[in-house]
C-alpha cells in the first residue's frame, strides 16, 4: 500500500524525526548533511549489494566520528540520505510514515556516531522495548 504525501510534508517529517533525537546527541552531530532523495541510485544499490527485492529507507555515507583522525576537517560532509519512495511504498498511512522516518533518521545518526549494523539493531530493540514500557 502506498500513501502519497508531498515532498514538503515528507521533508517536515524528516525534520521532526531529527528533532526527536535527544539534545545530547544533536549537539554532537558534526559535519553531516541530511538529505531526502526519491530512492537509492543504481550505484548505491550496487555498492550495498542490494537485490532488486530489497528495500532501503536510509543510508549513512561518511566517516563515523569514532574513526576520524586529526585531518578530518578537510573532509567533505558526511551524508545521511532518507529515501522517500521506499518509505511511502512500505508504510500503511501517515502515522506509519512518521514512525519509519523517525526510526530511519535515528538509525542513520547512530551510524554517524560509529555504531555498526548489529549495534544499531540491538540499540533499536532496546529503544522499542523502552517505548512500550518493557524494561530489562
From TrEMBL:
SUPFAM superfamilies: Metalloproteases ('zincins'), catalytic domain. Coiled coil: none annotated. Pfam families: Zincin_1. CDD domains: MMP_ACEL2062. This is Metallopeptidase family protein.
Amino acid at each position: 500500500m502506498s500513501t502519497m504525501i508531498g515532498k514538503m510534508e515528507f521533508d517536515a517529517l524528516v525534520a521532526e524525526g531529527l528533532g526527536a533525537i535527544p539534545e545530547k546527541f544533536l549537539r554532537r552531530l558534526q559535519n553531516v548533511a541530511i538529505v531526502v532523495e526519491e530512492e537509492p541510485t543504481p550505484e548505491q544499490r550496487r555498492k550495498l549489494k542490494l537485490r532488486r527485492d530489497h528495500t532501503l529507507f536510509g543510508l549513512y555515507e561518511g566517516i563515523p566520528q569514532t574513526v576520524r583522525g586529526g585531518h578530518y576537517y578537510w573532509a567533505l560532509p558526511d551524508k545521511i540520505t532518507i529515501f522517500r519512495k521506499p518509505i511511502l511504498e512500505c508504510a500503511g498511512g501517515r502515522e506509519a510514515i512518521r514512525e519509519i522516518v523517525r526510526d530511519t533518521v535515528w538509525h542513520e545518526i547512530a551510524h554517524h556516531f560509529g555504531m555498526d549494523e548489529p549495534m544499531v539493531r540491538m540499540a533499536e530493540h532496546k529503544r522499542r522495548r523502552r517505548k512500550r514500557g518493557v524494561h530489562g
